Amino acid sequence: MPRRLAALLMVLVLVLFALPWLAGRYPLYLAMRILILSVFSLGFNLLFGYTGLLSFGQAGFYAVGAYGCAKILLAVPNLFLGLLGGVLAAGIAALLLGILSVRHTRIYIKMLTLAFGMMIFSIALKWRDFTGGDDGLVGIPRAPLEIPGLVSLSLATMERYYYVVLVVALLAIGAMYRLVRSPLGLTLQAIRDSESRAEFAGVPVQRYRLVSFTIAGLYAGVAGALLAPLEATITPPEAHWSTSAEPVLATLLGGAHIFGGPIVGAFLFFMIKDVIVRFTQYWLIWLGAIVVALVLGFRGGVASILFGRLLARRAARVR
Amino acid sequence: MSDLLTVSGLRKRFGEFTAINGVELTLPAGRLTAIIGPNGAGKTTLINLATGALTPDTGTIRFKGEAITHLATHDRVRKGLSRSFQIMNIFTRLTVLENVLLPVLARRGRTRVPFSRLEGEGEAVAEGERILREIGLQEHRDAPAGALSHGDQRLLELGIAVAPEPELCFLDEPSSGLTPVERATVLELVRRLARERQTTFVIVEHDMDVVFSLADWIVVMNRGQVLAEGTASQIRENRQVREVYLGEEVLA
Asked: Which of A266, B31, B101, B200 has its CA 20 to 30 A from that of B116?
């Protein structure tokens, strides 16, 4: 990473840690939503930008993470268990769907994932006893974070929960950064470039696709699990295909070919939404128009316009 | 010479079209074999069947005595089978070094390592660099493979094909689309790799000058069958081959 970019990121992280002193409740809430969408989108882009698979059903895993976390918190007030349970549930769901779908590519995997997402949506809507149906799950507590013998942290205030979101998101971003630069990351990118060449290089392509699919599901689960205690209410639209579109839009906005693209995109997504929503309720149409213009005009997304010169073509990973 | 690959009773149909119609073939170790034949003779289909890209309708394929007819491609690669492609097939957005690094990592069972840095794979990187020196692309080490010239991409394909250290390596028209100078470079490289790496190459090629100068053994295919096989002079003399495929004037 170039020095100037590293310095910029350090400042950004410091600002994020100081944010509760710098800003009021609404900016803090927006920051949490941006961090959550960043994690969600980074997982999606591991699949899309790094492995070359497009999923239109990531909200299914997001909702499994959110509902899973909410159900646990409503039964056992411990955020650690809630997050862990939600993430694991989403990971298992992704593994199972992945086994069924990674052998398919192109249009078929998009249809399969789309159908899966809508299946989760239907379950959330119809299984009233478990999911609360239309009303969703309400009164999800921001329960204390307790790991026996390690920490016990009350999260009653918004500021405290902000730090949970920030730390989890930074850990997830850091882990993904290491992952895409590892031998596993190289293998996924090779599969993206040429499936057949990778197979003939000795790589069991389908197994690696499944790994990528499961990790993307885990990241969606992390995002969903973090959302539940923030919103205190989880409703079926979290599983809707329009929610699946959010990481897609964020990734296209920011750029799929730069690691930080989805994060820049998540920020822009909420900024644009926040501005446009003041003028019209049809904000998604305008956002769509902006994304179309970006995709047609700057294939690399906004991040490549901002950091293109800093990165000056991705530096070779192996020195 | 010990037999590396044995193909018997091989058949493959695509709908009405019979691509491979009862092929019997034995490829011994250390003999550079060329497969020739008119378009549609089944040369590429034979490679696809041997390497696992396709499954035959009937027949068996044995590699070093072991039946591999239904083995997955990546498992055949581990056993020592490899190939290049007729249509350019490289990892265009990876660097040149990363292109050859992938098969090296796969052979060493390192592709699943999730968090360690690529730079930490010292031995694999050193091996990748050695392959780049062998194919003469060390200067382009960090360039994206898609930015290489067509000729250099062909050399890189050869590098990726030999990186798994195969005992048997199929090259499907490795010099197609090249200028005569580039073609000579690629074929000289094939000759050198065969000598230095002890790899047995099977090459599909259209240029008869190349075939007759390079190959120890020539297999002629026609309509999904082996029409004849033998040394260059035997094939030149073969009346059937002359009539069906080569045409008198080519060998006159």
From this structure: A266
Quick check: A197 contacting B, CB < 8 Å? yes
A318 part of contact set with chain B, CB < 8 Å: yes
Count the Cβ atoms, other than its own, within 10 Å of residue A295.
Answer: 12
Between CA B44 and CA B38 the distance in angstroms is: 11
Map residue B71 onto helix, strand or coil.
coil
For residues A59 and A54, what is the distance between their CA atoms, to the nearest angstrom? Answer: 13
B112 contacts A184? CB cut-off 8 A: yes
ipTM score of the complex? 0.89
Q: What are phi and psi of B98, to 5 degrees?
A: -60, -30
Nearest to B115 among A179, A199, A316 (CB): A179
Q: Using an 8 Å CB-CB cutoff, list chain A residues near B78.
A: 202
4.10.320.10, 3.40.50.11810, 3.40.50.2000, 3.40.50.300: CATH of B3-91+149-251 = 3.40.50.300
Measured over the CA atoms of residue B190, residue B195, residue B198 and residue B203, the dihedral's sign is positive
Complete edge-to-edge strand list for the sheet that includes strand B200-204: B81-83, B168-172, B200-204, B33-36, B217-222, B225-230
∠ CA A188-A193-A290, rounded to 5°: 95
Core vs surface per residue A163-191: b (16+ CB within 10 A) or e: bbbbebbbebbeebbebbbbbbbbbbbbb
B245 touches chain A (CB under 8 A): no
Summarised one tens digit per residue, pLDDT across range A29-79 is 999 999 999 999 999 999 999 998 888 889 999 999 999 999 999 998 888
What is the pTM assigned to this prediction? 0.89
> Which of B47, B54, B74 should one mutate to test binding to chain A, selecting the residue with the greatest count of A CBs within 10 A?
B74
Tell me, yes or no, if B158 comes closer than 8 A to chain A by beta carbon.
Answer: no
